[in-house]
Amino acid sequence: MDPKLLEILVCPISKTTLIYDRQKQELVSKAAGLAFPIRDGIPIMLVDEARPLEVEE
For a disulfide at 26, which of 33, 34, 35, 56, Cβ 3.0-4.6 Å? Predict the structure, then answer.
């Protein structure tokens, strides 16, 4: 994930910064409780494509 792109991207719901999870290839928004997938190096910032975070995440 390009660090400059990560600086620009924010959660589409909470407008907060995202945390890059390299292992799961996701961008995590703790504020919204969602994880947005990264497919072929492209972040998919659609709420319909995001998965809800588990309690322990």
Answer: 35
| Residues facing 29 on adjacent strands | 34
Return the closest-CA partner of residue 50 out of 30, 38, 31, 36.
36
Query: Measured between alpha carbons, how far is 41 from 30 in angstroms, rounded to an integer?
Result: 21
Whole-model pTM: value is 0.89
Please provide the size of the chain in residues. Answer: 57
CATH class, range 3-52: mainly beta
Average pLDDT value for the chain: 93
Mean pLDDT of 37-54: 95
Arithmetic mean of pLDDT, 26-38: 97
What are the structural domain ranges in the chain?
3-52
